[in-house]
Amino acid sequence: MRNHLIISSLALAAAAGTASAQQACSTYEIQRGDSLRELSIEVYSTEDFRIIYDANRDLIGNNPNIIRVGDVLTMPCLEEIGRAPAAPQTEAEAMAAEMAAELVKAAENRASKAIAEAEARVAEAEAEAKKASEDAVIAAKSAAKDEIESARAEAAALIRNADAGERPEIRDRQLLLITGGNYAPFTDEALPNRGLYTYLVETAMLRAAPEQAYKIQFVNDWSSHLDLLMPTLAFDATFPWSRPNCEAAETLSEKDRTRCETYDFSNPFYEVVDTFFAREGSGYEQTLTYADFAGTTICRPEGWSLSHMDEVGLYEPAISLVRPVSPDDCFHAVMDGTADIVAIEAHLAIEAIGRLGYEHRIVENPNLAAIKSLNVMTHKDNPDGEAILETLNQGLAIMQQSGEWRDIVSTALRHQMENG
Question: What is the pTM of this model?
Answer without folding.
Answer: 0.64
